[in-house]
């Protein structure tokens, strides 16, 4: 029952908010992965990943793979497919935006 409530709540969000939440998710994931790869101290690595994941959760970020689990149980196939496509688009925009910013900062 809890999964159905979460899926229904996610499906109530607007189209643009889904895309924006996907972008936010990707920013947080990038911070976690980049920080983990660049920082030498194990404690700092752990803190960066922890803070990025907390930010992702608290900001209401959406990740296409994680959301597929909820959408599989929603019972609303077409709405679920649209939802996952929109979140995936947000994830792609976020990843591409971060890579573009990263390349621009090197020059």
Topology:
Elements: H1 2-11, H2 15-38, H3 42-58, H4 64-72, H5 77-106
Considering the chains and any ligands shown, give keywords for the structure:
107 residues; mainly alpha; 5 helices
Quick overview:
It is built from five helices and no strands. The protein is an all-alpha fold and 107 residues long.
Describe the structure.
The chain is mainly α. It starts with a helix and ends with a helix. The mean pLDDT is 91. 84% of the residues lie in helices and 0% in strands.
Structural class: mainly alpha
Instruction: Encode the helix/strand succession as letters.
Output: HHHHH
* Termini separation: 52 Å
Helical fraction equals over 70%
| Overall number of strands | 0
The helix tally amounts to 5
Estimate the strand proportion: under 5%
Q: What is the arithmetic mean of pLDDT?
A: 91
Q: Overall 3D geometry?
A: globular
Largest sheet: none
From the alpha carbons, calculate the radius of gyration and give it in angstroms: 15 Å
Indicate the low-confidence ranges by residue numbers. none
